[in-house]
Amino acid sequence: MSESSAAARDVAVSIRNALVVGSSLVVTWSLALLVRLWLPRKLGPELFGDYSFAEALAINGFGFISLGIDTYIQKEVPSRPEHASDFFGGTMLLRFAASAIVFGVIAGIAARGGYSHDALVAALLFGAAQLASLVGGTCATMLYAARRVGRLSALNVATKVLWAVGVVAGMISGAGLWAYAAAALASEAVRALMLFVIAKSELDLRMRVDVRQTLDVVKKSLPFYVNVVAMALYGKIDVAIMGMSVPEREIGWYGAATNISVVAMMVAPLFNWVLMPQLSRAASRGRDSLFAMVRRTFDLTLIFGAGIATVLGACADVVVHVVFGSRFEPSIGALRALSPLFLFVYLAMLGATCLILLERSWTATLVMVASFVVNASANLLVLRFALARLGDGGAGIGAAAVSASTEGIVAFTMFWFVGKEAFDRRNASTAIRVVACAALTVAVDRLAAPIGSPRIFVDALAYVVLIVATRALDVREAARVLSDALKRRRGEHAGS
Question: 140, 142, 292, 390 — which has fewest CB within 10 A?
């Protein structure tokens, strides 16, 4: 089989799995969109600032106990699923032991920051939810690595509904912040328990503690662990710094903008759960097969990411006014500054995955560590200056500009280390066409300004039409790959 045929087959399998995962994500996106975007409007800038700080504190704290094993699983378990039982029990025991320390640190930081008792309780409950999320995420990663994705879709939807019901109940009853954190904990705990049961059934997962195997996996996962910690801190360090240096309403305005980004970034699991196992299998056939798939994936990532960035940036005012209302108008600048982040994050994830499969994990890790240092340092320098110069919402604009700029540098650096094999003339042609389509879409947005809010649909349609018209996306090729993926799925169902 030629490398191009193997790459096409891998893309088809990836699309097939993406359809399964994506079908559940459509529902979870919808719920997240309704709840996460309603929450800031309900709480208001100040109280939502406390909420954002409590959530960020928990995410930052529990990023330290991931151990990096999920990335190890994505790399190793696809070829030997039975290996999962060698380290699962031991790594879970380590996580639970370390969580006691993290809970203490969270309580200390919240207390020293002068936050209310309600915010402190919310931070601790969010922490427990993060711990459950880590356990569930590891079980899910094992199932995705083994390509057992069917039952996970329904579970993702069910637990997201549970979370949404809890949050809505909290809003209707007027409960404190603890209620929203408790909803997150309930949904993540149920998801973790059910995923563990499914993993035991599908993978014959054994809950045993093998000290030697556990230590060996933790050692091999060290570069992944450092990378995950850097990413966790990197993703919320701006909110944590804002919590110590600017008024709560600034955190609330910025938190509203990042809530939009959370919804837009929910496609990221397709990279971790679907794409990496397929790239891993391509890498097992050799560098040529890996890079053939990376090049085609780069095109799709560029088209998709640039579309989100363009429409969201152009229509930031529409999104904020419709979703959050006039109280959150200072969020517009931050959302507009954040818009390029989506494209850069997706490209950086693709580059990091490629480096890991090329056995250059420490390179990807060092890039992320350096980006965290740069991001944190820039926020310390920029936040108060931006607030003083730009007024209300200025701190959010400064934080957003730092995040987008840093992530752009990360994406460029990742692919710089991957090397020129990851690109060909088709990539360059696609990039030029996508830039032209984005620029024309912004021009269409300006012309459509008099129609008001509906212009967001005009912009989205314009981008899609331009992408197809310029052949940045080859519709016939995409249809053929999608058809192959569906045929493979029907064939597997018939065979089973």
Answer: 390
